[in-house]
Amino acid sequence: MKISTDMNTQVLVKDVWKSFDNGRIEVLKGVSLTVPKGEIVALCGTSGCGKSTLLNVISGLEEVDRGDVSISGYDVVRESTRVDLLRHHIGYVFQFHHLMPDLTLAENCLVPVIAAGGSRAGALERLRELAEATGVAHRLGQRVKELSGGERQRGALVRSLMNDPQLLLCDEPTGALDEKNRERVFELLIELVRARGRTLVMATHDLELARRCDRTVKMRDGRVEGELI
Amino acid sequence: MSLWRMIFTNLRRHRVRTGIGAAGIALGVATMLSVVGLLGGAVKMFERILRTDAEMVVFEKNVSDLFFSNVPVELAAELEKQPFVKEARPVLFSIISSPDRPIITCFGIGETDGRLKKGEWLKGSAKDFTAESRGVVMGERAADFVKIQEDGTVELGQERYPVAGIVRLENGFENGGVFMPLAVCQKSFHKEGVCSVLSVALAAGHESSEVKEWMVANHPRITALENEEFSRSYSQFKILKTTSWVVGGCAFLLGGLSVTNTMILSVFGRIKDLAIARVCGFSRGQIAGMIFGESLLVSAIGTLAGWGLSALGLYGLRALPQLQGYIEPRIGWMEVAGAMGLAAITALGGAMYPAWYAAKLKPAQALRFE
Question: Burial letters for A104-142: b for 16+ Cβ neighbours within 10 Å, e otherwise?
């Protein structure tokens, strides 16, 4: 269902509340956030402040107790809308790569294409292009266990971009990497998103990385505390 | 990569798990096809005893077993007088024992009955098979396990009978049985004047319905059925066929449990993968489809393996000299199609809970799953 929003708004989160364990653990307490198209936003805060839950709520992976969430004007609460958004509009990168261990890197990257029913030829071309851009082209035929941590995370980045989503959500995408790989993956992420004019919302507790984004939203105890300048 | 390729890849990379699931189905299919094949073959062989050169079987109405059927022998002559009957042959079935064998099937037949002529005479000849000589003809297998005395006689029941000959017959039941002249058989079993069935051959250009109508009008306690009709309605055949499908069905249930187990393992072993698939845009239907697809593929592999296994097993049984002629397994396309259908239903039924569970997974929660 399309709800009316500003044409330029990519993500709209309005007074969202989310709790777990039958309301005993409140994680989001009236969070509101607006992200315009093409913006790169970092969500900062200590562990447990609600960054990951907010990303899950934006993608529709987590249902809200109350409040509204829309992507490009589409309500994410409905299952059919949510599936469509995840197929065509949202890419997701986790702290841990979450690649399927039984598949090769190429097969992993094609999973979103299978979900969306995209053409094989187009997908393979796009896979080659993205794999070259991220430096994993020579590793596409390898099983996940044969890849290094950095390669896995870059592979996960390729997978998230396979259907050319308008919005990329990243949950501590460099959190499990060493310094060298952290820098490389982050640079790639920013480069790919900027080059395509896409929107990025990234949860991180790394203030140094956060400062390199267009905007940094600070969260604390389930609330948006403010923005870092 | 398509969804099917993803399914295939997942099964290929978990060969042991796939193998165990397929083995469950294979054993179900093999059991079903073997039991159905064996009993179906036995039924066919019994049918052939009844239908030697005849189109119809006449027997006492409402008997549960042909061994209990009593048809007056003079009915054969009466029938042969009718223009629609070419020939009516009486056969008396009974069971007898010998010191070497507790159960031997005994066939009381007319001296001119064609079935002995069709066999290969290994000893003696048909001319000695007369009521006056009381000579019995042994099937080749029966002659193996029943001791023929040096004086050329054989002890059956409480009497001794001269052996008129030994004959090799294609039908295992006949080859393992003893043929007695009808009158001798009637006397031995206190069934004077009656037989179990009449095999009726129709005169050219006449219909079986004429025999049926005549029988209803003249002998209401006797029934006449076409061979096919008899096979369908004879309770012993029905029991055998039903038993074989029930036993096979039970084997499939066990196979289904094996599939369920395999698919549950498959789902619980990759909860995170399924959650990731959801994050990548897989719908609940696609997730369920993937699980059902895997189950169907496991079942297809199992069906092929089971088919091969049963064919091999039945071939082996057929080759055993002790079972020669008794086992004539038939695995027809109907049986194979039935087994395939059951395997598919089992696969779908077995995957129902795992598919439901996988489809209901909440991705965010599943990704936190350790």
Answer: bbbbbbbbbbbbbebeeeebbebbeebbebbebbebbee
Q: Which two tokens stand for residue A31?
A: 């969070």
B292–chain A nearest CA distance, Å: 16
pLDDT in tens, B211-262: 999 999 999 999 999 887 777 777 777 787 788 888 888 887 887 788 888 8
Give me the pLDDT at residue B229, please.
79
State what percent of residues in chain B have pLDDT above 90: 34
Q: What residues of chain A lie within 8 A of the CB of B286, using their CB?
A: 115
Core vs surface per residue B11-46: b (16+ CB within 10 A) or e: beebeebbbbbbbbbbbbbbbbbbbbbbbbbbbebb
Q: Number of helices (H) and strands (E), helices first, in chain A?
A: 7, 10
How far is Cα A16 from Cα A53, in angstroms, rounded to an integer?
Answer: 11
Nearest-Cα distance to chain A for B268, in Å, is: 14
pLDDT at A5: 56
How high is the pLDDT of residue B323? 63
Q: Could you tell me if A81 lies within 8 Å of chain B, comparing CB atoms?
A: no
Q: Tell me the whole-structure pTM to 2 decimals.
A: 0.72
Contacts of A113 in chain B (CB under 8 A): 1
